[in-house]
Structures
1.
Amino acid sequence: MIPFVDLKAQYDGIKEEIDKAISDVISKTAFVGGPFLESFEKSFASFCGVKNCVGVGNGTDALYIALRALGIGPGDEVITVANSFIATSEAITMTGARVVFVDINPRTYNIDVTKIEEKVTPRTKAIIPVHLYGQPADVDPIIAIAKKHGLKIVEDAAQGHGGLYKGRRIGSIGDLACFSFYPGKNLGAYGDGGAVVTNDDALADKVRMIANHGRMEKYNHKLEGVNSRLDGLQAAILDVKLRHLPAWTDGRRRNAALYNDYLAGSGVVTPVEIPDVTAVYHLYVVRVPDRRREALQEHLKQSGIATGIHYPIALPNLMAYEYLKHTEADFPEASKASYEIVSLPMFAELKEDQIAFIAEKIREFFER
Ligand SMILES: *Cc1c(COP(=O)(O)O)cnc(C)c1O
């Protein structure tokens, strides 16, 4: 059996450090707030190359709180990409703003930067580029559009921890950036967690206030916020894991390069990196032409190889967005990709012989 991800293999490699961190939190009863959270916020801000990090309850909250900190709400529009996890667009709707989708670039699966400007209206307040699958979105053209129209940029970096875009760290590019520490993410907690990072001190203060019931002092609230916390246990675990993240990212990149070699000419389309970026391969996604994806998945399953689809229905085509009255023709590339993409097993501990075996089974499928 080759699993899709193997969180147990990762834990086995760092068990002593993790177990010690957990018992430290418990013996200090630093469950909410406290030194472990402060320490992780400092380490993660420095890892991202930004001044501020605010730990929150999860990645979805991070996006919602970041948008609220920018003052986004009813009557506003926020532009994002048609291929992402629903959390991205959900967070926009949660503020009361309207979601405006843009199609994807068919080679990178990220937002098509040539199709953003046509979606800008006087109500547009922000753009959320998603660094999907750990592939940095092409943010320079997005920054140019944002400057021209006075828009804010919130990075959805939930799949992009540690990635680089033209020498800049993912998370340090937008006005704010949002991370998820869901267990399966590149930097994953042992439960839910998230963070908002920013270089802007005033925005960081707003984020901290909104995440903490809009509070200035204990019982004096400037506005209504939410209760969204990264707890002490998760922070301590993440602080340990952050030290290993660069090595794990190297492992993912090595495995992606091996996949690219073993799968060359096999019948699937392997992923690309745009020039001058370092992708972190949260997922390794290939494209299977001619609607043969399900058959390939079944063939791999028979050989004990787990696969996934990220995502089987493009966001505008979901029932949840029926009210926007889109058709698949409005987002032709995202819709087409949703029928052809398949995610292969990807984690740092994956071995070359496993990758070779997966590639062999894929070749076998196309040669039948
Ligand atoms: C995981 C994810 C989120 C949401 O994070 P949670 O911690 O699960 O709330 C948002 N956007 C993207 C692209 C994600 O992959």
2.
Amino acid sequence: MANLRARVGALVAILAFFPFFTFAQNNTTVAASTFFLSETETQFSINVANDSDDVFIYSTSPAYSWVGFGFGAKMENSLMFIMYPSKDGDNVTISPRIGSKKAEPTFTSAVDLEVLPGTTVNDNGMFVLRAVCRKCRTWPGGFLDVKSTAQPMIYAFGHGYPLYSDSKSANLKRHIRYGHYSMDMVAATGLGGVPANSPMLSGVQLKGKMTRDHDRANLAHAIIGCLALFVIWPLNVLFAGFFKNIRIHVGISVVIMAFLVVAYALGISTSAQFNRSQDYKTPHQVFAFIALAPIVLMSLLPIPSISKLHTLIPRLHTPMVSTSFLLLVLTGGLGLHLSSQARPVILGYTAVSLMVFIFITVLTSCIRRRGSAYARANNRKRVGEEDDNMVMLKKMDESRSSSKASFTQGSGTQSREFGADGQDRNQRGLYGGGTMPGPQYLLNMHPGVPVHKW
Ligand SMILES: *[C@@H]1O[C@H](CO)[C@@H](O)[C@H](O)[C@H]1NC(C)=O
Ligand SMILES: *[C@@H]1O[C@H](CO)[C@@H](O)[C@H](O)[C@H]1NC(C)=O
Ligand SMILES: *[C@@H]1O[C@H](CO)[C@@H](O)[C@H](O)[C@H]1NC(C)=O
Ligand SMILES: *[C@@H]1O[C@H](CO)[C@@H](O)[C@H](O)[C@H]1NC(C)=O
Ligand SMILES: *[C@@H]1O[C@H](CO)[C@@H](O)[C@H](O)[C@H]1NC(C)=O
């Protein structure tokens, strides 16, 4: 019984203790203007000292990812204060940055920001920042109008991924939400001091609602790249290696190339957005450019006039395809790392890569062991992959020369169209006799070449 009473007593003591902590923030009479967002309990208060050039800042927000506030109507040339948890997660890193148009803001050492005692990440997972900014009233590209009753301001929240860093130039992910407001600097002017915790707007006009941001170009970059690599690519291996259908193979290859071109273009357009990627030095970008070499070789070598140059050239197609695939998969993984994706996304990507890799490997070894459908249909025994390359090239060459023939012969091929002679019958078997534009059309790319009708 005494034991229970002691426990209840301890509980009461703890409960009694809590209000002391939560209300420990004194309601001092420091002049301030306060931005407050009830959804996240985010507060950002400014005090403009009237006895010095100092600007005092008090801010609190949930300590996940980053939160930023900036002086100015838009990102460009705005002086921003970006806050994120420190490396150990028990303090706040505050990074003054200068914004640029549609790109990640850059750390600036032009302002002198001093973090004051009381700055912490508290038990509720909220960070509390108490700071004084010296030389903050002008910065490269802008200034703070302390006489303004409606100083334009911006704010933004980063993605909910864990960003823990002591570095003031830590790489940021693009904001997920942002908004605008104006702040009364006259009301914020008074005796210098850190503003108090205050969960209400004061001297602030919100301008519009918080905007949800979408990084559609980057998302499309990832999705188009993955579709090309994990859906269309294995289909192509299936059609090329197993069904030996040169027409469909060339067609699908062109589609893959189109997807890759779009993915590369979107990637390049996104690169300028972030400090870390604008010099094209990240592993993701380096691998993407290295991968171009086997991709170009893989696409050019099967062209008959090139493949005829040396007997070795046709054998290079398969190794080039494998090299391109591996490099592109690696590039994709490095891209997820570069964009700080969550672990499940990276694990999912790895799993899909492995599955597709196993699928292609099993398919290829099946083709090697059993011979392709085409080879079996033609009673050829144990056809190797290199031989398959030769077979495909021969087909491509035949189709090309026959398209040339039809072109030069013009309307004189009427009798061939009826398939009277044996050679034509043979070719009909090779190409499946469909009516879709043949490889000769895709390869020659001459708009003037008529599509040959079998
Ligand atoms: C809070 O304000 C009261 C007077 O309003 C003062 O006596 C007290 O020292 C202040 N506490 C802190 C922690 O500043
Ligand atoms: C956080 O860092 C500031 C400045 O270095 C310091 O004054 C404060 O005491 C630190 N807070 C904690 C909880 O370590
Ligand atoms: C990128 O960040 C580094 C490190 O903070 C900085 O020195 C450099 O000026 C930045 N570059 C650009 C173009 O923003
Ligand atoms: C600064 O503002 C306070 C009121 O917050 C006032 O009492 C004081 O006289 C002002 N000082 C100057 C130098 O204007
Ligand atoms: C602080 O005190 C002032 C007047 O003394 C009052 O108007 C204001 O509501 C108080 N703020 C908080 C957050 O308690």
3.
Amino acid sequence: MRSSYSLVAVAGVLSTASAHGGWGNWGKEQEQDGRNVKQNPYKHVAVFSVDGMHGSDVEKYLAVRPNSNISQLLQHGYEYTDAYTTAPSDSFPGSMAQFTGATPKTTGVWYDDIWVRDYYDAGSNCTGPPGAEVQYAENIDYNSTLLWSGGIDPASLPETLVNGKCQKVYPHNHLRVNTIWEVVHSKGLQTAYADKHPAYDIVRGPSGTGLSVGYFPEIQSVDNTVAATIAYDRLHVNAWLDWLDVATPEHSEGALSAIPTLFGGNFQAVSVAQKTVGYQATAGNPFTPALLQAFDFVDASLGAVVAKLKAKNLYNSTLIVVASKHGQAAIDPKLYAKIDPTLIANLTGVAVEWQTSDDIALLFLNNSADTAKAAANLKANAAQAHIRSVIYGANLTASGFGDPAKDPAVPDIIVQPENGIIYTTSKAKIAEHGGISDDDREVACFVSSPGLKAQKIAARVNTTQVGPTILQALGFDAAELQGAKSEGTKALPGFY
Ligand SMILES: *[C@@H]1O[C@H](CO)[C@@H](O)[C@H](O)[C@H]1NC(C)=O
Ligand SMILES: *[C@@H]1O[C@H](CO)[C@@H](O)[C@H](O)[C@H]1NC(C)=O
Ligand SMILES: *[C@@H]1O[C@H](CO)[C@@H](O)[C@H](O)[C@H]1NC(C)=O
Ligand SMILES: *[C@@H]1O[C@H](CO)[C@@H](O)[C@H](O)[C@H]1NC(C)=O
Ligand SMILES: *[C@@H]1O[C@H](CO)[C@@H](O)[C@H](O)[C@H]1NC(C)=O
Ligand SMILES: *[C@@H]1O[C@H](CO)[C@@H](O)[C@H](O)[C@H]1NC(C)=O
Ligand SMILES: *[C@@H]1O[C@H](CO)[C@@H](O)[C@H](O)[C@H]1NC(C)=O
Ligand SMILES: *[C@@H]1O[C@H](CO)[C@@H](O)[C@H](O)[C@H]1NC(C)=O
């Protein structure tokens, strides 16, 4: 991790920032440059994740495309050059960071494929021993081979006892705190979101009501190539443009009655380019042509959204937020190597009930009392499995991950490999995310609107700050976000 967050450093960069920024105490400073966000909030926020895009990629892109749409956005925007997504950095916790203002210990959302000690298998009617795999991806669709998969099949959902009654756990039920989508929708305003699986039902939040419109073509039905993924992402882009006409594409879940106050979604093309082609192995790791093609597509798509906002005379009253759910590791292709994930479980020397592996391994043991023994065995064999750190016990809790003895969603052990190591038997990927390295976590994060003065903000920020920023930009109290309140997450510098 780099420099820790410092209000002093921020104040040095931003004339409008104040060391007194906090709950309900922001906005006053903004009057100095004639823009009082609190009194004149934005009417709309558009929030996009360029999945896989690092903070360093923003700089690399600007260097090769100095006249790009992203460059134009930054001419009146704040670029946060040291922004971190959650640990772990899987898409699910990465999205929840932005939309709840909180990390996995608070959201309960650790990964899109994980174990929960008090859930039961799908279709079991909460019988059998407690503890179940919880996978919220294409697996819960009616038919994931279809772009329009039919949505979530309840028969495939894990179950849990709620007040003694067995209930199916939809993705949105799995989330423990509310989302910005729920807060905005609860005000009678319209919200619309697009992502890669119907499982992104999770953004609706625990009430299940956070979206006016969900748009979830199934990415699994699409070839794992940059070209096919760009074609897929275009569906999302077209939906965003339609929403600005109060229209919804076919297969949308829900409908709009007005232009959405809050809308957005993700891009997958960069992530697929990173995993299949990646960066060049030369100094500075420039983009390969395939990766540049993916960034150019994203840039043109953002340009199309801006053009549409201008055509609708909404550009000045809209805040555009671009923040990645996750990065991708390693950036340097020379660091990449694969290790059979079963090696990790074997090295523990104890019974492992569940293991989630990517460029991280999350271990749930059959008997949590074995934790210290398993961790000692892993440390003793660290070199063989290219392990950088083993996080467990008091350290796990002290590092902000929660306590596995008290929380059924917290793993017993987090294994962090050396950067570039992927615990997988897949032949396809040359990079991965989900882990806790800087390459996984240091993500693109910038905001833009015609009324903002260009600023490069070097202070460390977290993408959990995106949620409070969006609510405050719309004139709402960020404390309405339960996760942000619980973790004390503030808006990004420039917005408090
Ligand atoms: C599920 O279990 C409950 C008792 O826990 C029982 O009343 C109910 O009939 C069961 N449902 C099914 C479909 O087996
Ligand atoms: C899923 O869709 C494919 C393509 O239409 C079809 O061949 C397959 O039988 C379907 N599977 C199920 C389980 O309905
Ligand atoms: C910006 O976006 C527009 C609209 O998609 C696109 O036509 C243009 O090529 C993009 N790039 C630049 C440099 O304007
Ligand atoms: C781990 O142990 C299992 C069961 O003995 C074995 O099948 C597997 O090959 C082992 N994995 C490695 C990487 O040695
Ligand atoms: C550990 O838990 C798994 C999953 O519940 C089970 O299949 C396995 O038999 C257990 N192993 C031991 C040694 O108890
Ligand atoms: C906690 O982590 C630190 C740094 O990795 C290490 O020095 C220390 O020994 C760990 N403590 C425990 C109890 O594992
Ligand atoms: C939008 O805002 C910019 C910068 O504040 C200003 O120059 C421009 O006139 C505004 N345009 C409209 C249509 O209000
Ligand atoms: C970002 O999160 C880390 C914990 O992961 C925390 O120590 C730090 O204070 C946070 N920074 C801000 C600005 O909230």
4.
Amino acid sequence: MAGRNFLFVPGPTNVPDRVLRAMVVAQEDHRSPKFPALALECFAGLKKIFKTETGTPILFPSSGTGCWEAALTNCLNPGDKVLVSRFGQFSHLWADMSARLGFDTHVIEAEWGEGAPIEQYRQILEADKEHKIKAVLVAQNETATGVSSDVAELRKAMDSVKHPALLFVDSVSALASIDFRMDEWGVDVCVSGSQKGLMLPAGMGVTCVSQKALAAAEHAKSPRCYFDYNDMVKSNAGGYFPYTPSIPMLYGLREAIAMLLEEGLENVFHRHAYLAGGVRAAVMDGWKLKLCAKDPKWYSDTVSAILVPEGFDGAKVISRAYARYNTSFGAGLSKVAGKLFRIGHLGDSNEGMMLAAVAIAEVAMLDCGIPVQPGSGVAAAGNYYRSNSPTLGTA
Ligand SMILES: *Cc1c(COP(=O)(O)O)cnc(C)c1O
């Protein structure tokens, strides 16, 4: 098919040409005296992205899922009690992993479309007088339902009952696109990956660990080896790795960080909110459809999960868009399969791309018999973009 495939899944995201070019490099010796400069520059840049002075960024040759496992096995002892909430496929998978790794996993169930149930976390932590719960897990952005949660509020709830558990945050589809503050929010492990807001191919797990988490990792008895924080931190201090890192990914990461910092993180967050605003205008004002996210306070600025009307199949919209219009949208996963389709609006995106996404979603829905008003989504998104600014005030 002529032209590029339009990629609007919420990861992997579009890789900017600048990053692609930076990755086309000859291989080099990762033990050479010249090598550490590259790694150390990446770590310094990542500290700005995580908004941390005291945390330690760590890169694993994995996807985000590997960093989930690293967080659990490095900081906890076998059988430790873990508190997690489930309100979508990703929070489900992390809870499931925790149980499968043998941790005593207490799952708070919330409706898919709602955010993290902060008050329930608070009550359970308050009742845990003996501090048996060692880690609290939360997905900052549940990619399956397009729901963002307030990590600062969760930290406040933990502090209000003076609970000493570690706080682990999945920011895979939020970091570098929705504000994340490692130090200010007292996050102990932030889990992320390369192929979402960081605009890289998949294949690099990007995580950041607090001093408290590293201290726990010094004594934690859960078995791990390849994903051991201690081995990593020891080698990384000199700019090296305990095993061979992906050289092109490091060059790509350095370039992606440079692009994010040139734009300015606050502008990056603003742009994501702005682009999301246009897509939401198309969904609600144009098509008169609903998001899976049940309340505006939970609307995600990186992905919109759009409910198709009763009696229609979201999977057919996705198939039609792919087969006929060379465009990829995100599927409904697990419990919400068929009920929705998702438009990813994170990473290297702009208005033109979003208007294309909306236009193609619209024609694909019409092809599937979904009665949306032709042109209504594009008109609503266009109006939104025309009346809002893509950058913060003074630029
Ligand atoms: C994509 C994603 C993951 C999984 O990451 P992989 O890189 O596919 O392992 C985990 N959590 C969330 C919220 C995600 O969006």
